[in-house]
């Protein structure tokens, strides 16, 4: 029998120093009963991780296996457990050694945190452990954390699909606990099917509201160019000085490595030289030691902001991140957006902001304007190409008026004749209503075409899942008028359990951590004035001169030498400015990506780059102003400019006058200089 809920709560508070909520107690109880699989859906920062360790307090010989996609999260778990006296090890590519697997087999660790890649790896150490009866007999259960990854990453990370094989290998009395903060109905079906979870009374689902009322939600169209990142300038106030207070701690998510590096450089450029290292970039390819140090710096406020990819994100618990931004909507599902937004203000006593900067092409109002212009152009093309001409049918026959093209006369049709599809724009009307089930049906993607699990698309195939479309255009769709409503409906927050009074019956309002509250600001539809400070002044873009058109050519010896010289230069410069660690983690493309290096070599072949201005014109390289002189000197050193053709000076010629006088005259004496 499992211990009572009161005993589980008391023991948890004694060891971890935290009072467990009722839903956490129920997860631990189900684990200890060992008769069902468990699905736990709870918001970011609500305490799902604590439920992994609570059952260990009631069986001193048991082993818990936790599968997580992030190595950094595994290392963090190991450190947290060590502080309370529970031995743990994190197994990933760097630590999957024969020595460590032997230690696990010898039952030296009570918690094994392991990456999905290592779980079912052919010939791997963990697969061998699963065949060891002694190890399996000590297994308390298997936790699959961040379970939304099974659905959203399963298509291009096959190891996630392989996790389902565990259910056939392990006995049914070893429960599976599947947790996530962002599982929609279709994703939940995917996870249940792919992991082969038990069903019926053998599966318990604990569903909490994933709303975060202390996060104010905004969606804004990108006003500047996508590569300028000018919309992010508000994060560092204009003319910021050393004595000024630091900006709020921020986190910006990108889905492209080059983008987050360039964005970080922009934000750094707005700071004095002494403070430019306060803004950093962060990705999965960096060393584990570097990541740990940077997370510590971010937690302590030494670093003010990160530009990052998904790698930073899931599971890193920093309580006071005030601003979280998603740059661009392409490639993002609503589940991904909310997972990332959930990093804001995990300290529920603080208030934070989360903003999606999306491409204009996804907004109904811009689509409507574009469609209106298209229709008007089409009308002008048809109607403005006509004129009236008088035609007779015979010598004295009747006269008729006939239309013929002229390109001069315009139609007198009104704007009412322009038909705009409801998919382009739908204004919200006070009387419009939409039932929750109707809205959810419109947002849910059929499982067989689920956009949350695609192969990466080409730029010609980009699009939005319906839920993201409604989230971006909530202000324009009938019966919605709120971005938080989209999240509540999509993730079924209205069906979540409300048990705050049962969780803490001694307090009048009940448990404040379980209490479902309303947001004061909500979103930029309800309170647009709140989001005004998050607007940047976008400088007007000057038209760039056209690049040179170059013919195809074969690389010559000098071209190869220049390529090698530029490679050496960017490696040396990366080390000089950012250190060996950044060169190792990010490569020399940090200073000059191949997309810039290659055009430099091509243009130098035809002597098109003779100055920094030429370098800017031909490459649009953001580092041209800073490093341009060095690159020009390097080009001229390896590929000297061709010597201009000159002719020898002509000897003076003698002009004889009638007076037999002589005068020396240069050949170009009559040319004005």
Largest sheet: 7 strands, parallel
What is the CATH class designation of the largest domain? Alpha Beta
- Mean of all residue-level pLDDT scores: 82
Strand order of the largest sheet: 3-4-2-5-6-1-7
CATH topology of the largest domain: Rossmann fold
Label this structure with key terms.
673 residues, alpha/beta, Rossmann fold, 4 domains, seven-stranded parallel beta sheet, six-stranded parallel beta sheet, 26 helices, 35% helix, globular, disordered C terminus
Description:
The protein is an alpha/beta fold and 673 residues long. The chain folds into four domains: 5-207, P-loop containing nucleotide triphosphate hydrolases (Rossmann fold, 3-Layer(aba) Sandwich); 215-360 and 520-534, Rossmann fold (3-Layer(aba) Sandwich); 367-405, no CATH class; 557-638, no CATH class. Helices cover 35% and strands 13% of the residues. The protein is built from 26 helices and 17 strands. The strands form four sheets. It has a seven-stranded parallel beta sheet with strand order 3-4-2-5-6-1-7. The chain has a six-stranded parallel beta sheet with strand order 8-13-12-9-11-10, with helices on both faces. It has a two-stranded antiparallel ribbon with strand order 14-15. The N and C termini lie far apart (105 Å). Residues 388-432, 447-462 and 655-673 have low confidence and may be disordered.
């Amino acid at each position: 029998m499992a211990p009572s809920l009161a005993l589980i709560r008391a023991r948890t508070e004694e060891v971890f120093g935290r009072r467990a909520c009722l839903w956490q107690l129920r997860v631990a109880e189900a684990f200890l009963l060992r008769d069902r699989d468990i699905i736990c859906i709870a918001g970011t920062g609500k305490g799902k991780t604590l439920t992994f360790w609570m059952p260990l307090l009631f069986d001193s010989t048991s082993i818990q296996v936790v599968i997580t996609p992030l190595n950094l999260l595994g290392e963090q778990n190991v450190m947290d457990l060590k502080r309370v006296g529970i031995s743990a090890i994190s197994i990933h590519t760097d630590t999957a050694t024969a020595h460590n697997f032997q230690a696990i087999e010898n039952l030296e660790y009570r918690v094994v945190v392991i990456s999905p890649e290592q779980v079912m790896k052919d010939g791997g150490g963990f697969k061998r452990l699963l065949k060891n009866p002694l190890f399996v007999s000590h297994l308390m259960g298997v936790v699959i954390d961040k379970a939304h990854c099974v659905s959203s990453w399963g298509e291009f990370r096959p190891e996630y699909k392989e996790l389902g094989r565990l259910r056939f290998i392990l006995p049914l009395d070893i429960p599976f606990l599947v947790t996530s903060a962002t599982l929609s109905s279709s994703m939940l079906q995917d996870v249940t099917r792919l992991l082969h979870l038990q069903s019926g009374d053998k599966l318990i689902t604990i569903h909490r509201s994933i709303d975060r009322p202390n996060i104010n939600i905004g969606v804004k169209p990108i006003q500047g160019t996508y590569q300028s990142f000018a919309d992010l300038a508000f994060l560092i106030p204009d003319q910021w000085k050393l004595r000024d207070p630091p900006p709020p701690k921020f986190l910006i998510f990108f889905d492209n490595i080059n983008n987050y590096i360039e964005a970080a450089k922009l934000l750094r450029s707005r700071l004095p030289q002494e403070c430019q290292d306060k803004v950093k970039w962060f990705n999965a390819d960096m060393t584990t030691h570097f990541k740990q140090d940077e997370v510590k710096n971010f937690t302590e406020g030494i670093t003010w902001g990160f530009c990052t990819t998904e790698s930073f994100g899931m599971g890193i618990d920093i309580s006071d991140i005030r601003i979280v931004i998603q740059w661009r909507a392409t490639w993002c599902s609503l589940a991904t957006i909310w997972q990332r937004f959930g990093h804001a203000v995990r300290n529920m006593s603080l208030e934070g902001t989360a903003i999606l900067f999306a491409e204009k092409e996804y907004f109904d109002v811009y689509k409507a304007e574009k469609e209106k212009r298209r229709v008007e152009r089409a009308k002008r093309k048809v109607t403005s190409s006509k004129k009236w001409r008088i035609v007779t049918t015979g010598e004295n026959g009747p006269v008729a008026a006939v239309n013929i093209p002229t390109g001069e006369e315009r139609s007198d049709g009104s704007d009412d004749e322009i038909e705009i599809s409801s998919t382009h724009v739908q204004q919200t009307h006070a009387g419009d209503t939409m039932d929750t089930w109707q809205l959810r049906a419109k947002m849910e993607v059929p499982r067989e075409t689920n956009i949350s699990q695609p192969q990466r698309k080409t730029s010609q195939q980009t699009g939005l899942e319906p839920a993201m479309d409604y989230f971006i255009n909530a202000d324009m769709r009938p019966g919605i008028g709120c971005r938080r409503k989209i999240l509540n409906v999509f993730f079924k927050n209205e069906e979540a359990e409300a048990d705050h009074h049962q969780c803490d019956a001694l307090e009048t309002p009940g448990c404040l951590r379980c209490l479902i509250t309303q947001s004061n600001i909500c979103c930029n539809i309800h309170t647009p004035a709140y989001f005004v400070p998050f607007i940047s002044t976008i400088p007007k873009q000057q038209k760039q001169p056209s690049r040179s058109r170059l013919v195809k050519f074969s690389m010559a010896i000098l071209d190869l030498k220049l390529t090698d010289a530029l490679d050496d230069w960017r490696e040396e410069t990366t080390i000089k400015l950012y250190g060996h660690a950044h060169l190792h983690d990010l490569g020399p493309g940090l200073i000059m990506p191949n997309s810039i290096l290659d055009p430099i070599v091509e243009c130098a072949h035809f002597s098109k780059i003779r100055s920094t201005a030429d370098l800017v014109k031909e490459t649009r390289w953001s580092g041209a102003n800073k490093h341009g002189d060095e690159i020009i000197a390097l080009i001229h050193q390896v590929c000297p400019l061709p010597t201009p053709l000159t002719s020898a000076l002509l000897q003076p010629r003698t002009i004889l006058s009638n007076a037999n006088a002589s005068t020396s005259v240069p050949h170009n004496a009559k040319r004005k200089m």
